Amino acid sequence: MPAPTILLPQDPLNPRRVDPHYSYESQLVRGLGGETAFVDHDALLAGDAAEGVRRVPLDIGPAWYRGWMLPVTAYAAFGRALAERGCHLLTSAAAYATAHELPGWYSTFEGATPDSVWLSAAHGPAELANAVAKLGGHGPAIVKDFVKSRKHEWHEACFIPELADLPAVAQVVDRFVELQGEFLAGGVVLRRFHAFAPAESVDESEQAIGGGWGRTRRPASGARPLADGERPVGGGQGAGERSDGGPSDGGPAAEARVWWVDGEPVLSGPHPDTPEVFPAPDLTQVRSLVRALGCRFVTTDLALRADGGGWMVVEVGDGQVSDLPRGTEVSGLLSSLIST
Ligand SMILES: Nc1ncnc2c1ncn2[C@@H]1O[C@H](COP(=O)(O)OP(=O)(O)O)[C@@H](O)[C@H]1O
Ligand SMILES: [Mg+2]
């Protein structure tokens, strides 16, 4: 079997070139002797998958995608259009849905990730009250859809201070649904809130936790952290800066993003939102959960509970559409992809 080609989004302004956000990865893949080909993300999003893959050479065989997020239905059409050209995505549409949308991975990670319930975005008050009751009925929570939160509008459309206050829950959830608009993925998810160790306290945490964190405090790269996996223009999901406080109100949690290929952690680095902090989580439990999930290329975002409860999986993602923080050494990850 030929080595997998890496499919990357083309530059919307110049289809013969790679989208500038992916030029670093493109160069690395080629430097490692790998092949790249370009896809038109705008066309894929617009439902024209044949146009989206028009520049992919015929009969290239296996491929991984590395690019902006796609809704599950668009990914499935992408895979079919590629198959017609003799190219097969190594992550099937079913595997993509499993890793990309919370209901796909939740049951495998239950207990290692915050308790979660989900409901239709078009729910009524009784359905919301029922979901709140299933989550225990009281305490803080967060709201997101099957894929993304609005963490940059933390108080307005993400954080729920108290589940028992149903009118206040409805207000945050309704605002979330309104702001997501037509880009809301799947349905609404409510998750129990846990205070995580914020990025700012990593140095102190090192003392308290006794080596739970890596000693490396990376120099700030200077690059503006892009909202993870989201395209900065178009797609309706702007990459806003955090504007009103944030998770735990101590700044963003210092998450670690671990990249898995065929059940092996091939890269562990900072989360794109906190590229200067590089926690080093214990992966023993997560490894067995990732293997149980059965998807070939995924990411897990891990955060350390501030109450000493250990590491939690904040979210799972499809590795093809997870963002890489600038300045991370990713050759190992890319060579794993082109040698599978
Ligand atoms: N259950 C939770 N408890 C505490 N903080 C959370 C919880 N879920 C999410 N967060 C915080 O909100 C941020 C965004 O949530 P996440 O599920 O990662 O959504 P997104 O897909 O938008 O990144 C996380 O990075 C984390 O800091
Ligand atoms: Mg996240």
CATH A-level architecture of the largest domain: 2-Layer Sandwich
CATH topology name of the largest domain: D-amino Acid Aminotransferase, Chain A, domain 1
Distance between the termini: 10 Å
**CATH class wording of the largest domain:** Alpha Beta
- Which consecutive residue ranges, at least 5 long each, have pLDDT under 50? 202-227, 233-245
Mean pLDDT: 86
- Main beta sheet: 5 strands, mixed
SSE sequence, one letter per element: EEHEHHEHEHHEHEHEHEHEEHEEH
Discrete helix count: 12
User: Would you report the number of β strands?
Assistant: 13
Residues in β-strands, percent: 15-25%
- How many domains is the backbone divided into? 3
Query: What helical percentage do the residues reach?
Result: 25-40%
Compounds present? adenosine-5'-diphosphate, magnesium ion
Region (Disordered): 204-254
Domain ATP-grasp: 135-199, 253-337
Protein name: ATP-grasp domain-containing protein
Pfam family, one: R2K_3
Q: Which SSEs are present, and which pair or pack?
A:
Blueprint: E1 5-11, E2 14-18, H1 23-31, E3 36-39, H2 41-45, H3 49-52, E4 61-65, H4 72-84, E5 87-89, H5 93-100, H6 102-109, E6 116-119, H7 125-134, E7 141-145, H8 154-157, E8 159-160, H9 166-180, E9 188-192, H10 202-209, E10 256-261, E11 264-270, H11 284-293, E12 297-304, E13 311-318, H12 331-338
Parallel strand pairs: 1-3, 1-4, 4-5
Antiparallel strand pairs: 1-2, 6-9, 7-8, 7-9, 10-11, 10-12, 12-13
The structure holds adenosine-5'-diphosphate and magnesium ion.
Adenosine-5'-diphosphate binds at residues 114, 142, 144, 148-149, 151, 191-194, 196, 228, 247, 252-253, 255, 301, 314-315.
